[in-house]
Sequence to fold (1019 residues):
Amino acid sequence: MEELQDASIHHMTAKVISAIKNTKCYEPIYKELQKLVCNPSVDTNDMRNTLEDAIKGAGLETEIRNVIYNLVRSRISKNELNEKSLPTSKQSSKTAVSDPLGYLKRAGVLWDRRVRKSLNAMCAELKVPLHGQPRISSDREDFVAKWNELSNYNMDLANYRPVYAPKDLLEVLLSLKGPAKTTTENTDQIPQWEFSHIALPVKNLFELRSHYADLLRSDNYSAMDTTTQCQRILEGRHAPMCQQFLKKGCTPAPYRGALWASVLDSKLHDYDIDYWQKLRNSVWTTDHIVDKLVFKDIQLTASNDDQYFVFEDVLYQVLLCFSRDTDIGNCVEYETFPVKGKTYEGPPSGVVPFHGICMFAAPFCYLYDSPVNLYYTFRAFYVRYCHRLTTINTHPQGIVSLCLLFEKLLQTYEPQLWSHFRELQIQPLRVVFKWLMRAFSGHLPPDQLLVLWDLILGFDSLEILPLFAIIILSFRKESIMQVASLDSIEAILADLSSIKVLPLVQLALSRD
Amino acid sequence: MPNQLRLNSGANACCGGGGGGGDTSLFSDWTQAWRYASLQPTLGQSSATMYGRLPGTSGGNATVAGGGVLSGSGTGGAGGACGGVGTSSSTHDKLKIGFCTDLDKSVLVNNFEKRGWHQVNGDDDWHFYWAGVQTCRNIFSVDSGYRMHDNQMINHFPNHYELSRKDLLVKNIKRYRKDLERDGNPLAEKTESNNSSGTRYLYLDFVPTTFVLPADYNMFVEEYRKFPLSTWIMKPCGKSQGAGIFLINKLSKLKKWSREAKGPFHPQIAKESYVISRYIDNPLLIGGKKFDLRLYVLVASFRPLKAYLFKQGFCRFCTVKYDTSVTELDNMYVHLTNVSVQKHGGEYNTLHGGKWSVQNLALYLEGTRGKDVTDRLFGAISWLIVHSLRAVAPVMASDRHCFECYGYDIIIDNALKPWLVEVNASPSLTSTTVNDRILKYKLIDNILSVVLPPDGVPDVRWNKVPSADALGNFELLIDEELAAQDEAQNSTASSHPKATKVGSRWK
Fold:
């Protein structure tokens, strides 16, 4: 028995080691290690112990731990792991039976293709090559000169439209038809606008409560105040500890940037800064259609937003570089399913910008002054979470699962609201979808939004989004029950500026 | 913070009573908590909203403020000027409170009507006058012989120009500092440094070096010669909204201007006086943009000084692009169904007007610079405001009928030091955006609740100590009367004149 355990641990270790060797940070760590070996405190007669001590003393141990932590959660496919190696990794394995969800995967692939096809069509219509073309030198000089104030860079955007908007994704989602329902529910409502026919596993409220249990745990034993705790944790530089701290939802603003960077593994190395400059140069030298889409998007959303318009110049830089970053395409998980037909290419990043995509980046402007820092943390956040909100996929935290979770919670715990919506023939999802797809960015005021995103990072789950949507609906239930039209309901839910995230979530989860 | 407290208390009060049988609602007991937290109002609430009366509701006395019974003594018998029957047993709606306003702004009128007041002319019996500057001059002028009675309040002090005119403000601050120095007050401590800024007051250095022209011309030239690389900004004393302002960085330019200006630039016959200040050429930039801060400060009395700071100030950014257009999309390019512009919150059609809330500024500074420097900055801002008010307090006619809401314009430099640029006695009440309108409505609402006695009837005889609820979004900056009382109670009375309460967190 023990031998089996040892063997599997050995097997795992070998896998992790080979994975580490493939990462960018392997070389710097190895070099650091080599330097340590030359350290006088390391004794060749007792290499193992003295070297281990030296590693611990230099803080290299924490760094290696962090590398392993991040690797295991992101790179190694869940199917290869036979066991959960770290308790904080909450990714559940994909459903073994893919048949019930085949249509969903197919829809996902079709959606991706459709979006790219639109982009290609736009290129054809406007007679620009999809892969971009070199900028003419006068344009390039103008661009370089105005790099820090791109809001002053003039671009004729009259012929450009965002490729799609959240509403479009919603329509596609609502029209998803599963295999024919065998139950004979006699409802006079057409059942296909409910998501309950989609056989994705989602948590119920009890499971959510246990998942988020740490939110309710009070820290009576700690003699330190929050600020000192933060400082200690950041000195330790241990990513899982930082993540644990974020679960409390009371992160002091000065430390949030550092904590997020630690959890998202976006600490800057020299090669990161070089890479950023490379991206920037490619933006300077190549004119790509996504540039226009980025400009259009920011002008339509962030530049008009009371909370974020100040940062528009930074957002231009970040989003433009984002669109050229091929690493993103490699990190993002796409749905796979055999589908006939032509495949279309997308932008270098693999992400076709949609209306409002810059709002994912906007809240980061409150955390970082320099665009480079902002970029890497935002990019990691996007790859880890945001992307799942923008495509149709079967991931347990994808937008489809979140919609399903929302509907189930609403139906089970707010039956009055549920029937009210049914009477009015309004899909409740219509009202909250824009919140879900943007992770509430642009809807909640920045200080509260950052708390919500603390919870996303801390508990490593987007499930807080539909949960919070339900909380808001429940909170304003009385008003909603009094009105009878979609417009009135939207008016009631338009202003979330007085909502405080933490007390509401704690209250919702604490009831028996 | 208050919202949070109220929410918890309300919820706790209700959680004891469990839900009824079969009630699976998450928050069945939350309706009470929700009311206490005064979030989005239901349709059933007050008939008067910030947009005026809802149609179909009776125009009754939908008073929100006050709501108490008139105190039997005093207001009931304040004479025929009240225009109503006032017996000691009458309720407040017997005394018809009349308001008069020189500005026809809905943020004002709606707030007044919400309290059940009715509009009258300046010649009629008014109890509350939101006056323009000219009217004030008439009312307060010695010749008019106008005497206000105890149930009349007006929104300006007779000589507010001591604070709002640039030359008088500078003169008063300089005099204040000299007085403190002469008294040996530690506040007036100076630093003898050899750096470019020369001798500076350590604690009272919140106004850029300023001279009044033509009177201080020679002093200005002396200062100019010490720091020839500085840029200076010329502002006419009596104008507003940036009219007539220009920069100079060479003395010759000033001489040239004075030659070209209308009328001889002669000390004895100056037509218009100007102030010339050291230009702040290193302002704090956010997102690469320059901005200044607009804060509202309510002064209920100058002697003793009672001042309140409105927590919802904002930053005004100057290079805002207004050339975006939110157009409806058609699905020309896209082969998806129902492509349309996603408006979220319904606010994205209105422009933000270049205004960014002070809360967001604080959040940004804390996140990128740290809490200590942010706290220091906001402390310095409160300090600046208090001392500017103290500087003019001795010369202000502290009429009991008066209160005033000032608009403070402050610039922050890149060392996170605030500088006082200007004080406006009639800050604009025009709303440029939806949020702006909401803000100004709340501002007027809170001003009224602070300056009026608890029963909502204008009366100068109350103790002018608003309750915590009445403060609303205002935070107490300084109340010299209360501070003196506290000191009298404390046995260890160190009579430090610095009896200020530096503003607490702005969130």
User: Anything to note?
Assistant: The radius of gyration of chain B is 26 Å. The longest strand of chain B covers residues 291-301.
